[in-house]
Amino acid sequence: MSKPVLVVGAGPVGLIMAAELARYGMPVRIIDRLAARTTQSRALAIWPRTLELLDAAGCADAFMATGLRADAVSIHAGNRTLARIPFGTIASSFNYLLMIPQSETERLLAGHLGAFGHTVERETELTDFVGGDDGVSCTLRHADGRIETVEAAWLVGCDGAHSLVRSRLGLAFEGDTLPTGFVIADVHVAGLAIPPDEPAIFWHPDGAVMFFPISRGHYRIIADLGSIALHMPDLGEMQAIVDRRGPGGVILSDPVWLSDFGVNERKVRDYRKGRAFLAGDAAHIHSPAGGQGMNMGMQDAFNLAWKLALVERQDASPWLLDSYSSERSGVARQILSDSSRMTRIVLLRSPLAQRVRNFIVKQGFRIPVVRRAVANRLSGILIDYPDSPLNMGSARGLRGPGPGQRLVSRCSSKQGNRPPRFVLAARNSAEARAMIARHPALLMPEPCLPPDENGIWLIRPDGYVAAAAKSGNWTVIDMALTGVAGDRNIRTCDEIERH
Questions:
Q1: What's the whole-model pTM score?
Q2: How far apart are CA 169 and CA 334, in angstroms?
Q3: Which of 303, 338, 351 is nearest to 323 (CA)?
Q4: Any idea where the FAD-binding domain is (predicted)?
Q5: Residue 54: in which H helix or E strand, if any?
Q6: Percent helix, strand, coil in the chain (nearest 5)?
Q7: Are 212 and 44 in contact (CB under 8 A)?
Q8: 144 alpha carbon, distance to own chain's centre
Q9: What is the CA radius of gyration of the chain?
Q10: What is the DSSP letter of 191?
Q11: How many C-beta neighbours within 10 Å does residue 199 have?
Q12: 127, 257, 277, 387: most buried by Cβ count inside 10 Å?
């Protein structure tokens, strides 16, 4: 039996990592030192791009049946509405924000993983590991004190902000800590005069208070503390903050969770060292502004899983794995920048700066194109990999995305429980069938309709364009696939036909 991939950490990132590997037929083990999954709501937001990937993985329906659909987010100052950003214009079939407690996300993903015959090995802790040329020797400690040595093919650290995997790899977690703390409460809310499924942000000279619906009448409330030191809030303090900063008439009761937190903005430079990888909070942490953290981590896992599967099956060259760090590190830099900017806008303290901010937001969000741009940015559908080493060709002159950009195809969502495959989006022709016959281990057996009949697109298993070319220019597609396979003796289709 081949060596398993060892996934450390069974939060949403580790669970989707293990489930994707299992879906692709890979041997995998997932461990977590905790005895049970979280019961706290923690990360709440699942954005459209993540829902698209969950749909391709075959589990989006369960999330949609469980979560609360939010169709807009609004920004207020007292009783004045400064802006309302609808999500219906997002260019995705999932044109909304799904609000779902992390406890439920973990429950659903654990069930999804279980469908492949795998469960989380709980109260099992990674204590050390040693990397080699052909695997990673990992030392595990079980709840009963038993020590086990696991010879893993690969190690994936999804073990959070205090990652042992990152520490043992010696990777610096570079960045800063914001000087402001926050308080958080999951409570029952009455008297809030906004749609019950709409996140709302209230700005006040003292700071902000934000309401995020979890279920009917149940909200997550977050407020910044300014210069006040971090401390555990009580319901009375949260009520006082809401009374002062909110719209008035809001009553809090029945707290489920009260806590405080600081904000770090940090990331590693490299997500890989040898046969060990980092994903999620182990690789990057940032402000919760924009609700991107869990989404980023889950998208890390989607990016890495198909590459690991192809390489381990020897259908792709090991160099494919080098693209993981460069692609996802670039995304993290952008998200960290966006969330940092949003946080600093919220935390403005100068009365003049606050008035200017409020005026700009009120005027700017009256413009439909601004509202659409912000909604699409938040949704994740604009995430791309413009500098990916996998990119080839160009979509210039064609109606469709270019290399590195997202292309959602019905064929991509039909891959099912099989090894990962690229999708060839092209007219069904002798040339297309010949390309599929030339690369049967990498391509789906049938071509898919292209966005423009005058072009050819090669779509990665995670729904991004690897190569694009005008019809007839099959050399670009052939070179992209041959490069993934690692064949240095690249031949064009014309050369193949002559042989």
A1: 0.93
A2: 24
A3: 303
A4: 4-337
A5: helix 48-57
A6: 35, 30, 40
A7: yes
A8: 35
A9: 24
A10: -
A11: 23
A12: 277
Question: Which pair of tokens denotes residue 332?
Answer: 């993290």
List 379's β-bridge partners, or say none: none
Residue-level pLDDT, tens digit, the chain, 499 residues: 589 999 999 999 999 999 999 999 999 999 999 999 888 878 899 999 999 999 999 999 999 999 999 999 999 998 899 999 999 999 999 999 999 999 999 999 999 999 999 999 999 999 999 999 999 999 999 999 999 999 999 999 999 999 999 999 999 999 988 878 889 999 999 999 999 999 999 999 999 999 999 988 899 999 988 766 677 889 999 999 999 999 999 999 999 989 988 888 899 999 999 999 999 999 999 888 778 889 999 999 999 999 999 999 999 999 999 999 999 999 999 988 888 888 888 888 899 999 999 999 999 999 999 999 999 999 999 999 999 999 999 999 999 999 999 998 766 655 667 899 999 999 999 999 999 999 999 999 999 999 999 999 999 999 999 999 999 999 999 999 999 998 644 433 333 333 2
CA 288 to chain centre: 13
Domains of the chain: 5-44+101-173+268-347 (3.50.50.60), 175-265 (3.30.9.10), 392-498 (3.40.30)
| Unique residue bearing structure tokens 């606050």 | 354
DSSP for 276-340, written as a single string = EEE-GGGTEE---TTS-HHHHHHHHHHHHHHHHHHHHTTSS-GGGGHHHHHHHHHHHHHHHHHHH
DSSP string covering 215-280: ETTEEEEEEE-TTSPP----HHHHHHHHHHHSSS--EEEEEEEEEEEEEEEEE-S-SEETTEEE-G
Residue holding tokens 């060292």? 273
* Residue 441: both structure tokens together: 């281990």
138 vs 356: CA distance, rounded Å: 55
Residue 190 makes CB contacts below 8 A (sequence gap 6+) with: 217, 250, 251, 253
In this structure, what token pair is assigned to residue 64? 């949609």
CB-CB contact of 442 with 484 (8 Å): yes
Please say whether the beta carbons of 211 and 192 come within 8 A. Answer: yes
Q: What is the DSSP string of 359-411?
A: HHHHHHTTSHHHHHHHHHHHHTTT---TT-TT-EE--TTSSS--TTSB---TT
